[in-house]
Amino acid sequence: MPRHIWSGAISFGLVTVPIKLEPATESHAISFNQIHLADGGRIRYKKHCEIDGKELRQDEIGKGFEYGDEIIPITDEDLASMPLPTAKAIDIVAFVPWDSIDRRHIGEASFYLSADGQVAAKPYTLLRQALGRNEKVAVAKFALRGRERLGLLRPYGDVLLLHAMRWDDEVRDPAEVTPPEIDLTEEEIAEGLSLMEALSVDRLDDLELVDHYRDALVEVIEAKAEHRDVRPAEGTEEAPSGRVVDLMAALQESVAKAKESRGETGGPATVHEMQKPKPKKAAAKKAPAKKTAAKKTTAKKTARKRAAS
Predict the structure, then answer these.
(1) Among residues 42, 46, 64, which one has the least CA distance to residue 55?
(2) Are 56 and 46 in contact (CB under 8 A)?
(3) What is the DSSP letter of 164?
(4) Do the Cβ atoms of 256 and 264 come closer than 8 Å?
């Protein structure tokens, strides 16, 4: 179980909830070492003092701020005693509807909040259940890792989850990447919706999501360690060439493949390549046309007799 990285309290109004902050996620990324390409030797970084030239251990290194012509030492005790209300508290500033949150503001870091002791259990549970019942989330401010942050507090099962958020000036204006206006037909939009429906699941948990990049990287490492070639990926497709495609045909084929992968049948039929229209046949003779009309008249009379009987 990961150790908590911060301890303090949630404060809203006059209510205080002692809590501990723990990472809600963990990384399984593969780390590389820097090496000398000529002989494969590891690259090491050594830290030296520029005054006496001594190589330093990590416990001999602290923080300092360049202030004018001098360096001001800043200790952990200095940071802990900052005149900042959020230094040891997650200060809830407002409760807002969850659907009013711009998802671009939510950062990558998420944290579980655990009640710190038996006394904290009751107000902790009160806050969690109250948030769950009114479908709102708490916008909060807190200080962590050298700066004040914006946070989003919401219930997640039986615990409280805190998302680190980005400030307004950290979110880019999307206007600079907005594509030019394109006209779409109703048929194309309807087929796009059909594809979305064919690929839809009820919950994200229903998907079997695997980090294929990590698996492929492990394969590369093992292959090189065993002095063998890397096995090619199965079903590798060429990158798009940028050529213009028939959007409707591509959508219909995608829907058909999505349904086939789920064992479903029916729906849009398989897409056939567009063919040139066949030349029209010569007009039929009038005599056969009369015979056809006579057949239709006979069929109508037969139907009337059956209805009368």
Answers:
(1) 46
(2) no
(3) E
(4) no
Tokens linked to 22:
């723990």
Alpha helix stretches (DSSP H) within the chain: 76-80, 118-134, 186-198, 212-225, 247-261, 286-308
pTM: 0.59
* Mean pLDDT calculated for residue range 241-266: 74
105: three-class secondary structure by DSSP: helix
307 Cβ neighbours under 8 A, 6+ residues apart: none
What pLDDT is recorded for position 153? 93
Higher local confidence (pLDDT), 84 or 212? 212
Distance CA(243)–CA(255), nearest Å, equals 21
pLDDT tens digits, one per residue of 77-119: 887 677 666 667 888 989 999 889 888 888 888 999 999 888 8
Q: What six digits make up the tokens of 57?
A: 């251990």
Rg (alpha carbons) of the chain, rounded to whole number? 34
Q: What is the pLDDT of residues 177-207, one digit of tens each?
A: 888 888 888 988 898 888 888 888 888 888 7
Residue positions counted in the chain: 309
The span from the CA of 234 to the CA of 228, in Å, is 18
- In the DSSP assignment, the letter for residue 48 is B
Calculate mean pLDDT across residues 276-294: 45
**Whole-Å CA distances, 231 to 53, 220, 234:** 50, 9, 9
CB-based contacts of 269: which residues, under 8 Å, 6+ apart? Answer: 256
Angle at 65 between CA 60 and CA 66, to 5 degrees: 120
